[in-house]
Write a structure and sequence with these properties.
This protein is of the alpha/beta class. Helix 5 packs parallel to helix 6.
Length: 250
């Protein structure tokens, strides 16, 4: 089975500083994969290269078997690559439902007509409501985003990303800044996402990582230190030295 997302010898340098060094990475349909590593390991740079927000210095990126190394971000999204952002990219004054409806409308290429009230698009509203129900947000559909607790705002971001019907979903720190009770909610939502979507999560919350991921890649100073199933990663001494150890020491 060919990967839905793949990188070959991906490198990125800013002058003398190398932030990605020969990264070989593969994601298959249905994968539940986590990318971890200490601060400054190059995780965000890697994700930005995958999305097309940053051009690699060398190496190649493939999406659905086709090379997309120089393909623009919007085109990658059309080809099935979705992401959530660490920074809230929501229309905070609009209700939750409208935020999700805008994403779905964009996918249906009806964005040009969205100056009409969202309610005039029955199908889009139905799909949005269904998606919110899946994520346990049905009761919040009419609430303005800015009036939601932060953890729920993160769930709305996931809903918007899902509204684009991605084949690959990159979740950039979905639990960042979220209280632990609410990160439990995020985990439940992740478990309910469509089984066929390949999901890559970039996350500092080790508890969430080890409960969600079936495979983990550890990035250190722009290089892949090790990749494997969670139990192997948990036992790997090098991982403890560079990363897990520092979590326990504060």
């Amino acid at each position: 089975m060919s990967p839905v997302l793949e990188t070959k010898k991906l490198c990125k340098s800013f002058g003398a500083l190398t932030v990605a060094q020969n990264i070989d990475f593969r994601l298959h349909a249905g994968d539940r994969h986590a990318l971890i590593g200490p601060n400054g390991a190059g995780k965000t740079t890697f994700v930005n290269m995958l999305m097309g927000a940053l051009a690699p210095s060398s190496g190649r990126i493939y999406l659905g078997g086709e090379e997309v190394t120089r393909v623009r971000q919007a085109q990658r999204v059309k080809r099935g690559l979705g992401r959530t952002f660490q920074i809230n990219a929501l229309f905070r004054d609009l209700p939750v439902l409208d935020n999700v409806a805008l994403g779905i409308a964009e996918r249906r290429a009806q964005a040009a007509h969205m100056w009409k009230p969202a309610s005039s698009h029955g199908e889009i509203i139905d799909e949005s409501a269904e998606l919110l129900a899946t994520l346990g947000l049905a009761d919040d559909a009419r609430v303005r985003v800015k009036d939601l607790p932060y953890g729920k705002q993160r769930l709305v971001e996931i809903a918007i990303a899902l509204g684009l019907a991605p084949k690959v979903l990159l979740l950039d720190e979905p639990a960042a800044g979220v209280p632990s009770m609410e990160s439990e909610r995020i985990l439940k939502v992740l478990d309910r996402l469509p089984a066929g979507i390949a999901i890559l999560i970039i996350e500092h919350d080790m508890d969430l990582v080890f409960r969600f991921a079936r495979r983990i890649t550890v990035l250190v100073q722009g290089e892949v230190l090790v990749e494997g199933p969670p139990d192997e990663i948990a036992r790997d001494r090098r991982v403890h030295q560079v990363y897990l150890g520092e979590q326990h020491h504060g």
